[in-house]
Amino acid sequence: MPLVFAAAALVVVLAAVVVLLVAGKRLRPLIQARQRAIAALCGGRGLTPSEGSADFALLGPIADRWLTNSYASADHSVAIADLTRPAGRGLVYFTVIVFEVAGLNLPFMSVTRRGVGRVTLGGPPGVELESIDFDRRFEVKAKDSRSAVMLLDLPMMQLILDCETVSFDMAGSKVLAYINRAAEPAHRPAEPVEFELLLRFMDGFMGRVPSLLRTQYAAEP
Question: Are residues 216 and 150 in contact, defined by beta-carbon separation less than 8 angstroms?
């Protein structure tokens, strides 16, 4: 009997290996197509291939090997990449962008889509806004609730609602926005949909930072 169980287990393992190999072979052309599309998209923005995790310090300690399709601007004020990292016995899959809002110095805050895992852990107390719809769809945490309320005015909240799969953290002048691509039905293995949305979010964010916030939370000269 033990030999029968051992043989059955071996058959199961071999079958699983075959399935993984076949799946990998089918996905490889899609992955390569996405890599080419990402390279074209980032190249059009003046972003070039970048190695290392220093641009993503807001994530905390991460291994360089967890980043793929990594691109950055020449001055590293913008960096974008796919992030795959261990989580318990499995893996989590994010696409992340870091960009700088020059002249600002905000205490840490986060805006996270409810029901989707955060790319960073922990966080300060929660903040409630006057928009019931926004509070129902996003969780806001901030060390300084006043700065969060000032940042999340109506135009900024509308941007976040329009880019509904994007969550972000902000500290000082740095914004870390991300999409949990494994949890999103819009993910398409052959297309850079997360890169496109994060770059569009960055453009909208930069154009919607309230002028009063730049006055009240200005960086030291």
Answer: yes
Three-class SS of residue 179? strand
Whether residue 149 contacts residue 156, with contact meaning beta carbons closer than 8 Å, is answered with no
Task: Domain ranges for the chain, please list them.
Answer: 2-216
Backbone angles phi, psi at 147, to 5 degrees: -65, -35
pTM (two decimals): 0.83
Q: What is the DSSP string of 24-43?
A: HHHHHHHHHHHHHHHHHHHH
Give the pLDDT of the chain (221 residues) as one tens digit per residue: 555 555 554 444 444 433 333 334 556 788 899 999 999 999 999 999 998 889 999 888 889 999 999 999 999 999 999 999 888 888 889 999 999 999 999 999 999 998 776 666 556 778 888 888 899 999 999 999 999 999 999 999 999 999 989 999 999 999 999 999 877 666 667 788 999 999 999 999 999 999 999 999 999 87
Tell me if 94 sits within 8 A of 83, measured CB to CB. Answer: yes
> From CA 143, how far away is CA 117, in angstroms rounded?
20
From the list 62, 13, 10, 71, the residue with the least C-alpha distance to 37 is: 71
* Pairing mode of beta strands 138-142, 106-113: antiparallel
Residues 6 or more apart whose Cβ sits within 8 Å of residue 213 = 104, 106, 147, 150, 151
